[in-house]
Amino acid sequence: MTSAFAVDRAFAAIAFKRRLAYKAQWVVALVLGGGAMLVSMAMWRELLAGGALSGYDWDSMRAYIIIGFVTATVVFGAADWQVADRILDGHIAVDLTKPVDFQRARAAEYIGSMVSTVPTVLVGVLGAWLLFDPPGPATPLAGLLTAVSFVLVFPLAFGLTYLTVLVCFWTKRYLGVMWLREALLGFFSGMVIPLAFMPSWLQAVAWALPFPHFTTTPAAIYLGRVDTAGALGLLAAEAAWTLGLWFGARIVFNHAVKKVTVHGG
Amino acid sequence: MADTLTPDRLTARHVGAVYRRALLAQIRAITEYPGDFWVMASAGVMWNVLQFAFLTVLFAAVPEVAGWRYHEMLMLSGLLTVAAGSTAILCDGIWSTGQMVLKGEIDYRMTRPAPVVVQVATTHIGMQGFGEVGFGLVMVAYGWIGAGLGPASLPLVLLGIVCAVVIECALITLFCAVNFWIKGPMSNFAFVMLDLQHHAMTMPLGLFPIGVKVVTMFVVPVAFVNFVPVAALSGHLAPWWVIGMPVAAAASVLAALGVYRLGLRSYDSSGH
C-alpha cells in the first residue's frame, strides 16, 4: 500500500518538477488568466453599475470572477498534452508493460502538473484581491467547504480530461478534442457567464453535466447562495462525478486500448 | 528553371504560385484524415456557437454593453472569428517558426527559391479554421441584418473582412518571429496576443482605460481587425475611420515582413 502511494508520489513529483522547469509558462498563464479576469471585471462593473442582475451585484461578481480565475488557471494549466502524447506517439505500448496502473499513473502526473499552477494562482489572487477587494466567504464554514470544493476539482478535472484524451485512440490528433472540452467547460461551468443568467432549460442541461462543479459550485458555497446542507449536497454531487468519471474512464480504456497503434509495428 | 531562380527574380507571380501549390498540398494531406478534419472543424464551430450563446444569454438580461447592442456585438465577435479562422487556413504554419528555429529547420528553407516566410506559413493548415470562418461569417451576416445595416454597407463589410484577415495574418507572423530572438518551441507572444484579443476585442473598447485604446489602435492595431470596422458601420465611430483599415493592414504587413527578415538575419541555425 505504502509502496503504491510512493509510486504515485514519484509520478506527481516528476510532473510537478517538469512543469517548474518551464518558468515562462507561469508568466504566460498569469498574463492569460489575469487578462481574462480584468476584461470580465471591466464588463461586469459596467453592467452592474445600475444594480444587481440575476441575483449578482458588483460585490458578489468580483468574488465570482476571482473563483473562476482560480479554477480556470488550475484546470487549463494542467499537462493534458502529456497524457495525450503517450497515446499518439505510441509510448503507451511501453507503459502497458510496466507494473503500474496506466490510469492511476497518469492521474498522479496530471495532479502533479495541476499543483505546479498554484504559484500562478496565488500571485493572480493576491493581485486581484489588492485591486478589487472582493468580499470574504459568507461564513467561516462556507470558506472551509469552498476549499473542499477546490480540492475536489483536482481529481474531477483529471477524470474529465482523461476521458476526453482517450478519444485519441480513435483520432490521430488531440487539439480539436481539447478545444471542444475547453469550450464546453468554459461555458457550462459558468466561467464565461454565471449559470443564473441562463434560461432554466439551459441551466438544467448544465447541471446534468459535471462542468458546473468547476466554478458554480465553489462560488455558490463561497457566496452563501446555498445553506450548509445545500453545500454538502453540491460537494456530494462533485464527489460522485469524480468517481463516476474515474470508473467510466476505466471501461472506455478497456475498449480503447484494443485500438492502440504503434508506429513501426 | 525554378531551382536557378535567385532572390532577385522572385516575382510576385512566382511567390503566389509557390504559396498556392504548397497550400493545396496541405489540403490534399488533411483530406486523408477525415475524422480529424471533422473533429477540428467542429471544435472551431463549437467555440463560436458558445460565444453566440454567451451573447444571447447576456443580452437577455441587459439591453446594451457600453452602448453596444446585441447585433453589433455579434458582428464584433463574428469578424474576429473570421479573421482568426482565416489565419489558421492561410498561414497556420507560421506558428512552427519557434520549433524550426530551435531545430535548425530554417536552413533547408533558406536554400530554396521561395521566401522563407511563405514556406514556413504553408507547412500546416489549421482545420478548425474552416469551422471558424464558416460560423464567423454567419455571425457577421446575422448581426449585419439584425442591426438593420442596408445593402449599401456591403462593400464596407467586405473591405472590413479583407483588412481584418490581412492584419491578423500579419500580426501573428510578427509575433511568431519573436522566436528568432527569444528561443522556445512555443510562440508565446503570438498566443498571448490572440488570447487577449479574443477576450478584450469581443467587447466594446469603451469599457477599457484610455491606455488599452491607444495600444490596440496605434501600437498593436488589433482594434482595426474588428472593432473599428464594426464601430464605423454601426455609427459608434465617424465613417472616416475606415481609411485606417487599409492603412493598418499595409503597416502590419510591412512590419511583419520586416521583423521576419530581421529574424532571418539573426538566425544562426542550431547546435552552435
Folded structure, characterized:
- The complex is a heterodimer of chains A (265) and B (272).
- Helices cover 71% and strands 0% of the residues of chain A.
- Chain A is mainly alpha-helical.
- Chain A has one domain (2-259).
- The two termini of chain A are 36 Å apart.
- The relative contact order of chain A is 0.13.
- Chain B is mostly helical and 272 residues long.
- Chain B has one domain.
- Chain B has helices spanning 12-30, 34-61, 70-90, 97-103, 106-110, 116-121, 128-146, 154-176, 188-200, 210-219, 227-234, 244-266.
- The longest helix of chain B has 28 residues, at 34-61.
- Classes of the chains: A mainly alpha (265), B mainly alpha (272).
What percent of residues of chain A are in strands?
under 5%
How would the global form of chain A be characterised? globular
Helix share bin of chain A: over 70%
Major beta-sheet overview of chain A: none
Give helix and strand order of chain A, one letter per element, not per position: HHHHHHHHHHHH
Mean pLDDT of chain A: 90
Total of helices of chain B: 12
Strand tally of chain B, please?
Answer: 0
Basic shape of chain B = globular
Helix content estimate of chain B: 55-70%
Q: In whole angstroms, how far apart are the ends of chain A? A: 36 Å
Radius of gyration of chain A: 19 Å
What proportion of the residues of chain B form beta strands (DSSP E)?
under 5%
**What number of domains of chain B?**
1
Topology summary:
The complex is a heterodimer of chains A (265) and B (272).
Chain A: H1 2-20, H2 24-47, H3 58-76, H4 80-88, H5 92-95, H6 102-115, H7 118-132, H8 140-165, H9 175-188, H10 200-207, H11 216-222, H12 228-256
Chain B: H1 12-30, H2 34-61, H3 70-90, H4 97-103, H5 106-110, H6 116-121, H7 128-146, H8 154-176, H9 188-200, H10 210-219, H11 227-234, H12 244-266
Helix pairs in contact in B: 2-3, 2-7, 3-7, 3-8, 3-11, 8-9, 8-12
Give a short synopsis of this structure.
Chain A is mainly α and 265 residues long. Chain A has 12 helices and no strands. Chain A: The chain crosses the membrane at residues 26-44, 64-83, 110-132, 144-171, 183-209, 229-249.
